[in-house]
Design a protein that fits this description.
This protein is an alpha/beta fold. The protein has one domain: D-tyrosyl-tRNA(Tyr) deacylase (D-tyrosyl-trna(Tyr) Deacylase, Chain: A). It has helices spanning about 40-50, 100-115; strands spanning about 1-15, 20-25, 25-30, 55, 60-65, 70-75, 120-125, 130-145.
Length: about 150
Amino acid sequence: MRILLQRVSKGSVTVDNEVVGEVGVGYVLLVGVGEGDTESEADKMAKKVVGLRLFPDEAGKFDRSLLDVQGGALVVSQFTLYGDARKGRRPSFVRAAGPEVAEPLCDYFAQRLRGLGVAVVTTGRFGAAMRVEICNEGPVTLMLDSGD
């Protein structure tokens, strides 16, 4: 499982001119599910995301977690995180899990965030053409990989 995490002041997902998910202060999490990923990887990644200290304290140092700042999370499925563009000009996505695995695992990941205490967890719409608006703060962006 791969997650591109961006610390935001706000983020939203729009499908067919309808906002389907939005968040204020917190994270926008672009989530890629790879072949062989299971709930075990989703559990590990949810705990990692919730525990990361990426919000500044009074001294401006990264010392506060998502829970500390009572932030929210916008979870957006992103199979292209498994794109391989090493050969040619058209990326291959063969390492991304199929929708029958990826959709329930993205939903499970969002539920785990809720279960770990994130009060506001919203999502995009799996498989839809989405417009994702991200107001990245910092900027703070991390790539997380369950294989690391």
